[in-house]
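Hey, can you fold this one?
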Amino acid sequence: QVQLVESGGGLVQAGGSLRLSCEVSGSSIRTNTMDWYRQAPENQRELVARTRRDGDTYYADSVKGRFTISRDNAKNTVYLQMNSLKPEDTAVYYCCMAFNHWGKGTLVTVSS
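Sure. Predicted structure:
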């Protein structure tokens, strides 16, 4: 059974940083596309960042230059480094593997 567990969320002031982690069990991230999504209250879930197995990455325009997605295949873990955080980054952040396995999310709150 594939499980994804996010951690690292919390409350931070605008301009601060957080690093989210997504630890995966039951399957290897090495051969899978790994995504970070987020969902703010009353908003649809949106793709924030993606890392493909060939190393290619994608970022939403709203986070480009501030967020960095990375993976540690040995630890079977994906990270999202978030810098220069803004209040509009406040959301529940979800990890997704292979487009169909999801974690339960971790809440990020950015205060102004």
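The longest strand covers residues 18-25. Let me know if you want another pass with a different chain boundary.
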